[in-house]
Design goal:
2 domains; Nucleotidyltransferase, domain 5; 15 helices; homodimer; five-stranded mixed β-sheet
């Protein structure tokens, strides 16, 4: 087993970086020098609302697919989208959640073989490089590091780690991301609230808040959203909504109003219904743009559409996810909707496993 | 001259507060004890882009209208909308710009008789009370303090200090505000970018940025905005727009792209034209909502519409302000558009003068 030999050598040669943030990595000081196993992999899903880190054992070549790997530990932290909370906060959140996961399963950084960090806000190679730099500061130099947009992990969570087909995420934010079998990729939306992600939870809620303001000042029709939202927020007048909105710039705080909008729509409110119908069109148009650009579906050909996020998961009478699929299948009858059984962070860990195995395979073939 | 006697007494009895912020008010230490005049008034216009402070002499009863009062000093600072820059920064900006204006004309706080602070972000009586508290910390207790939404000063700048008719502001933000002769008031919009101010400079620019992202990812049609905006910002790809947008949350920075949108519309770009046409509809609907709620125009009756802000002032082929007036006059033929000859900060100073004179008149009648 050439790979295992290589791993042991690497383990001894670990050039352990000094803790960048003393408190976060203090737990390592009380642990034995090396755990002697084949090591662990970390999968992270950093969304706009929360960040999840999954730790799995590596167990190379004992399985041909990663989905039977056990989960050793799971840790959760807040938002790690640097566009939303800023770079310092995003970086600290990521470091803390990885430390928590490793500490929970009694591992330390010297046991880590690969990390796949899938985080929202990765929109450009420079974002990827900057975040890779953060990880390089944390881990020994032999650790394989992969940084992806969080949509990629969500796709992997529905396709057992295979990058093929399209994923649609609609939680606080929204993005559609797709891959062809030969590695071409494309995305649509995912540009945040300023740049037109109107199908997202934030988009839906911001439009509902706007509808309340417009009904109040005479620009829009009356809507049940007014009493429902004011009651939910404990406010007495629509004028107070402005102060409430700008008191805290968190996107997730606004997006948390989506269930109120769905309830009003289910109760027959015309304004709330229009907001949800518009959001369905926006979400479907993101998927259509990706499928067309990648030619994922030539006429009747089937392709997986992995659907992730609170906006799509709402199992209510007004089912946004179902409406989006109906809308897409009119253009692409081969769409195969998949609701993943595992969370995106597990998808990220499976990706780390796949990337790592491919690299090792390539190295073995070369040697 | 009963009032002047009263003023002199008050001047001697000034309970000068200690400087809250030493550096800002240091200039007062080198000035003589009292200037002996009738005192000065301050008018402030705090918008989302900049804050202007005007200092005028009081000269009570020497004029029946304030518009012939000379301007003693003018000072400018940055944004003082607490919803945009936060409370601490807003407060410091206001204090600094008032100190600058007083220092420029050789007056100090003990000479001030009245301050009218018209600032964006005043949306609720609690905002007004909080900002009055800031001013009370700065000035002696005898100074008359008035806090208004910045739209009120803009209206006054076009009506010689009289609160009657409607004002439409469209700069970085937008708001419509109206008053009837008997003191009823109403507003529409002015709720900021999250809450649907789509006719504002920020709204126009954000929609243009969204159009570029949508054209890039396949959701929208191609537009000249792509090359024009990327060139203006020195970016090489639409992917970089996301990083640029969230690198700095300033609304004014986004709104500065309006001239690019107007240029593209003038060059015949369909997408840019649609954005401007939508903005005209949004702005007109704000005015219509105010005029209807106040019944400012019963059929053919005339009413002033004061128009203020960069979006409306653009004297280009694509004249947004002219289109808004055309749109409004279809519903209210009595609309009398006014482009003020003085800036809103002067309107705020005139308001301070009017408020002060009314209060003194009331006190004299009572005594």
């Amino acid at each position: 087993m050439k790979l295992e030999e290589k791993e042991e050598v690497t383990l001894d040669a670990v050039d352990m970086k000094r803790p960048r943030n003393g408190e976060i990595w203090d737990f390592e000081l009380d642990m034995p020098m090396a755990d002697g196993g084949a090591g662990v992999i970390l999968g992270l899903d950093g969304g706009t609302t929360s960040t999840v880190c999954i730790c799995m054992p590596l167990i190379p070549f004992s399985h041909s697919q990663p989905e039977s790997l056990p989960i050793l530990a799971r840790a959760v932290a807040g938002c790690s989208n640097h566009n939303s909370v800023g770079e310092t906060a995003a970086r600290e959140t990521l470091e803390q959640v990885m430390a928590d996961a490793l500490s929970k399963c009694g591992s330390k950084r010297s046991s880590v073989r690969a990390v796949c960090l899938a985080v929202s806000g990765v929109n450009h190679p420079t974002d990827q490089q900057r975040i890779l730099g953060w990880l390089r500061d944390i881990f020994p130099s032999n650790v394989r590091l992969y940084v992806q947009n969080d949509a990629v992990a969500a796709l992997a969570s529905g396709t057992m780690g295979k990058l093929h087909g399209c994923v649609l995420i609609a939680g606080t934010g929204t993005i559609a991301y797709g891959f062809t079998d030969d590695g071409k990729e494309a995305r649509a939306a995912g540009a945040g609230p300023v740049l037109g992600d109107w199908g997202s939870g934030y988009g839906i809620a911001a439009q509902a808040l706007t509808a309340v303001v417009k009904a109040h000042d005479g620009r829009g029709q009356d809507t049940m959203l007014t009493s429902s939202i004011l009651k939910t927020l404990g406010l007495s007048s629509a004028d107070e909504l402005i102060g409430w909105t700008y008191a805290d710039p968190s996107w997730a705080r606004i997006a948390a109003l989506v269930p109120v909008v769905v309830s009003c729509a289910e109760a027959g409110d015309e304004v709330a219904n229009k907001i949800l119908l518009d959001s369905v069109q926006e979400l479907a148009s993101s998927v259509k743009a990706v499928v067309e650009r990648l030619a994922l579906c030539d006429g009747k050909g089937a392709f997986p559409l992995v659907m992730v996020g609170g906006v799509l998961e709402a199992n209510r009478r007004w089912d946004i996810g179902k409406e989006v699929v109906n809308c897409i299948s009119k253009h692409f009858p081969g769409v195969l909707p998949i609701r993943p059984k595992v969370e995106p962070a597990v998808g990220a860990a499976w990706l780390a496993w796949n990337f790592f195995m491919k690299e090792c395979h390539r190295e073995i073939c070369r040697s």
